[in-house]
Write a sequence for this structure.
């Protein structure tokens, strides 16, 4: 069974691999996530070299269909976060 990595798993891995305390590792991870979030909120793309690019994409209003009943319903316009992996990351999975 596949395991889903959580924020705490990442913090523990950084603590073990780098030798920082859990609290120091937690501060670093929280700061990284905050920087990514702030960039996206400001309408900027966030590119992490050799990993990929996070960006915000605007989706227009559209008509969707309930697959169970077939009833059409409008889907509101919204912004979504997308991730495009770099070619280096993609090549790891070929």
């Amino acid at each position: 069974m596949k395991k889903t990595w959580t924020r705490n798993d990442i913090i523990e891995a950084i603590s073990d691999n780098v030798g920082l305390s859990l609290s120091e590792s937690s501060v670093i991870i929280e700061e990284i996530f905050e920087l990514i979030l702030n960039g996206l909120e400001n309408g900027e793309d966030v590119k992490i070299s050799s990993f990929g690019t996070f960006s915000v994409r605007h989706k227009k209003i559209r008509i969707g269909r309930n697959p169970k009943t077939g009833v059409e319903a409008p889907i509101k316009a919204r912004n979504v976060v997308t991730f495009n992996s770099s070619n280096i990351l993609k090549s790891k999975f070929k």
Observations:
- The mean pLDDT is 95.
- Residues 20 and 51 are 24 Å apart (CA to CA).
- The chain is about 40% helix and 30% strand.
